[in-house]
Amino acid sequence: MARRTVVAMPGDGIGKVVLPEAVRVLGAVGFEADWVEAGIGWDHWVNEGNPLPERTVELLARHRVGLFGAITSKPKDKAAKELSPALRDKGHVYFSPIVGLRQRFDLDISIRPCLTFPGNPLNFIRRGPEGEAQEPVVKAVIFRQNTEGLYSGVEWTNPPGPVREALASHPKFRAFAQTPSEDLAISTRIFTRRACRRICEQAFAYAAEHGYSSVTVCEKPNVLRETSGMMVEEGRKVHQRYPGIELWETNIDAQMMWLTKNPEDYGVIVAGNMFGDIISDGFAGLVGGLGFAASANIGREVGVFEPTHGSAPKYAELDPPIVNPIAMILAAAMMLDWLGEGDKAARIRAAVAAVVAEGRVRTYDMLKLRGGPQAVAQGAAATTQMTDAVIAEVRK
Ligand code: NAI
Ligand code: MG
What we know:
- The chain is an alpha/beta fold.
- Helix content is 37%, strand content 17%.
- The chain has helices at residues 15-28, 42-48, 54-63, 76-82, 97-104, 161-168, 193-209, 227-239, 252-258, 273-284, 326-338, 342-358, 383-395; strands at 4-11, 33-37, 65-70, 109-115, 126-127, 133-134, 139-145, 155-157, 185-187, 214-219, 246-251, 268-271, 294-298, 303-307.
- The strands form three sheets. A ten-stranded mixed sheet has the order 2-1-3-14-13-4-7-12-10-11, with helices on both faces. Strands 5-6 form a two-stranded antiparallel ribbon. The chain has a two-stranded antiparallel ribbon with strand order 8-9.
- Helix 8 links the parallel strand 10 and strand 11 (246-251).
- The longest helix has 17 residues, at 193-209.
- It is globular.
- 42% of the residues are buried.
- The structure holds 1,4-dihydronicotinamide adenine dinucleotide and magnesium ion.
- The site of 1,4-dihydronicotinamide adenine dinucleotide has 18 residues, from loops.
């Protein structure tokens, strides 16, 4: 088999810290690949007027698999101010390069496993009927539609005339008819049947493959009748092909309320873009938060794997670095799953589980310390020490 090439996109801030750590773990588990580094993020915006350089897009198109760290993103006006003077007033408009990647390669399936590692001091704890502490084992895997919905970018402040006219053709728009256009902000929620079907199909297929007994479609069809309604409809259709799996339907608001009541009851959960974003952050918070949350962005041809956290600029320059590399390492394991190297992925997850359970090596977040240069003196493991511990387990 031809040797594989993986596109490494460290990005900004701690993306540059954690990505090399994941590459070390991949090496330790015997994953053989050539690595090509590709730029993405703030520096490219500032110096080139494009946070997602074409070279990066081309490399991904060629090699089809990418490991991504994190980027720094800032609001439009700040972005415009930081643009290098030579590039100003040339029509460059900042956009999120990760959203850009999802749209360029139609990475329409986002997968976010939220799995409890026993022994993690950050695990959610609740009280049982006798007042006893309970630590439910969460095993939720969220399938989030990644390219449409409220994040598709079709939005206006001061909508152009034809848009206003089209909206005015809807009886419910009467309530806004007197609002001046410049006081009107509109973000559209666009769902397509094709994308709804695909996310539901992927969710059920995953549930079947991994032995889950339920798939929950989490939307809000009683209010968002058209968009949520379409997702639920497609979920029901796909469900007919999986008689052994139960289909549950929940509303996003109620689901968030139940999050801490019975999180262990949920298996695979499928949702549109925004609700999927919310629900996956909610579940991630029960199993360790940003130091543990990883996600996959998968299209028909290209897969990009990333930790959920951002660039955490205030920790980017610390020496030694203190951030938890586990989220990035788990993202690398998801990449191995997608590449058909499930055995190696399982070894990485088992190694992380062993390190967490043993509890000897813990980064500052796991010790609930305030982040900063003092954390190491207070007993926190540095980033590289956590990686070393995982690698030592892999090698056992
Ligand atoms: P963030 O995720 O970068 O950091 C928030 C806080 O979470 C940090 O201050 C730190 O306390 C903790 N944290 C994050 N990663 C950690 C890790 N690996 N280990 C231990 N603790 C960790 O989010 P924030 O501060 O809201 O955003 C910073 C920048 O990152 C912004 O420019 C934002 O736009 C961007 N961002 C990028 C994302 C991406 O690249 N996918 C996602 C979220 C934010
Ligand atoms: Mg999010």
